[in-house]
Each structure stands twice: as structure tokens, then as C-alpha cells.
Specification:
By secondary structure, this protein is α+β, with helices and mostly antiparallel strands. Helix content is 33%, strand content 25%. The protein has a four-stranded antiparallel sheet, covered by helices on one side. Helix 3 packs antiparallel against helix 6, helix 4 runs antiparallel to helix 5 and helix 4 packs parallel to helix 6. The longest helix has 20 residues. The protein is globular, with a radius of gyration of 22 Å.
Length: 266
């Protein structure tokens, strides 16, 4: 039934004149009028049955809502404040996205509410040796570890790129965790709770800005730091107008012979 609902929702959006973006079928757009500052743009992002609407023309937005309400029960909850576990705060110069509430609930679930604050997500030079991993891990540790790391992944991909490396490293041991790894995962949660208000700030861009809207990218790699595969770890981060829009940290797909080769693969 979920797929049938999605097929109908997608069909009605396209009948309205909207098209899906190239790399994500769940994001629909429509443009009306001549290109330039007077162009009318409507963007609708969909996750299951939750829609996020961005539009510079109230009349176009109202037209879309009226049309879609003929087939679905939609409600307009006003300016964006909370969406899929992420809180949005509107400032004079932009919008901030944080997950403090979600992080607090995770810490309460795992008994970390009163944990001593930490200033880094992981211990300095934290490593795992192949010999310390158990072939048959404790079922309780295995279940809790997967839950904690899953919660961390959700934070790292939405608003906290500062823990991407730590979370990716811990996610490599989902099938053979031990108590030491579980404590390391919980430390990342404590770090997130120790840094409230941290997140992503999307700054407004208007005609008064002297600099044009620019894309900036950073990338770096290590050199064969994985003790299990001898592969390097790489990462990148993309910014538009000073706000991060995409980031990743993970092992490279190939074994390289130097840091120069690692950066080339990255």
C-alpha cells in the first residue's frame, strides 16, 4: 500500500507540472515565468508522507496545496520548525538546523543523561586490533551497539558532520562489537550532548551580497590506516555560501601505495 500511495502522489505531482530532480525522485520542482529574480519556484521534498515545501511565491504554493488536497489530506503547518527529528530555528541572517532534542532522547535511552561532558567524539588515536574482536559477540552488546551506532548515523548525516569520521569508524564493527567499542560509541553520544546548539547554519543569500553564490569543496585522506584492510580513510565536504550541504568519511575502495594515490582515488 505504501508503494501504491507513493506512485499516486508522484503521478499527481507530475500532472500538476512538477518534475523530479535528476538524482532524487523524492524531490519535485516546478518553475514558472522568465528566468531571473521574478521567476516563481516551488520545491517539494517528500519522506514517506511528510513534505517539506520551499517556495518564493505564496500563490503558487496555495495552488499546489489546493490541487493536491483533491486527492490527499494535506495540512500546512506554517514555517519550518521541526522535520524528521531536526529542529529548525529562523534567524535574521538564515536558518539553523540542530538535533538537540533527538540527542537528549538517545542519551536518556542509554542512561547517559548524567554522563560527564567530553570535548572530543573519540579518544586520541583510538584503534581496534583484529585480535580483540570476538567471533561470537555478546548478544546484548551486539543489539545495543547497533542501536547506538544507528542513532549516531542519523545525527551524522543530518546536522553533525563533525562526528562523521568517528561514526564511520564505529560502523565498521557492527557484526563483532565488544564492550570497549560500545563505550566508544556512547562517548560520541555524550560528545553530541556536550555540544548543544551545534549544527548547520544556512545563511541567506540576497542581492546585497557582493560575493556570488559559490560552491567550495574540501577533501583529504590518510595513508593505509585501516589495520584490517590496509586501506586509507578519506573524506570530503561541500559548502554553498558557507553552509555544508554534503559530506562523507569512509574507507577508500582500493588499497593505495601512498597518500598521493589515496587523494587521487578520493
Amino acid at each position: 500500500s505504501g508503494r501504491l500511495w507513493w506512485l499516486l502522489f508522484s503521478k499527481k505531482n507530475k500532472e500538476f507540472g512538477m518534475t523530479s530532480v535528476t538524482h532524487d525522485d523524492c524531490v519535485f520542482t516546478i518553475r514558472r515565468g522568465p528566468k531571473g529574480p521574478n521567476e516563481k519556484v516551488l520545491i517539494v521534498a517528500v519522506v514517506v508522507d511528510d513534505c517539506l515545501i520551499a517556495c518564493n511565491c505564496p500563490a503558487l504554493k496555495a495552488e499546489w496545496l489546493s490541487y493536491m488536497n483533491e486527492f490527499f489530506e494535506l495540512s500546512d503547518d506554517g514555517p519550518l520548525k521541526y522535520y524528521l527529528g531536526v529542529s529548525y530555528t529562523h534567524h535574521g541572517d538564515g536558518i539553523s538546523a540542530t538535533q538537540d532534542g533527538y540527542i537528549d532522547r538517545c542519551c536518556a535511552k542509554y542512561g547517559l543523561t548524567d554522563a560527564k561532558p567530553v570535548t572530543t567524539p573519540m579518544e586520541h588515536k583510538f584503534e581496534v586490533d583484529p585480535d580483540e574482536l570476538s567471533v561470537e559477540p555478546d548478544p546484548k552488546i551486539l543489539e545495543e551497539y547497533r542501536q547506538v551506532v544507528g542513532s549516531l548515523i542519523y545525527c551524522s548525516v543530518w546536522t553533525r558532520p563533525d562526528v562523521s569520521f568517528s561514526v564511520n569508524f564505529l560502523a565498521r564493527f557492527m557484526s563483532k562489537p565488544n564492550k570497549r567499542l560500545l563505550m566508544a560509541a556512547k562517548r560520541v553520544l555524550v560528545y553530541l550532548r556536550s555540544t548543544p546548539g551545534k549544527g548547520i547554519h544556512f545563511r541567506h543569500h540576497n542581492d546585497k551580497d557582493i560575493a556570488p553564490l559559490t560552491l567550495t569543496a574540501y577533501a583529504d585522506t590518510s595513508d593505509a590506516d585501516c589495520k584490517f584492510t590496509s586501506k586509507s580513510t578519506g573524506g570530503y565536504m561541500l559548502f554553498i555560501h558557507g553552509a555544508p550541504i554534503a559530506w562523507k568519511s569512509g574507507r577508500l575502495p582500493l588499497v593505495t601505495l601512498s597518500s598521493a594515490e589515496s587523494e587521487y582515488v578520493q
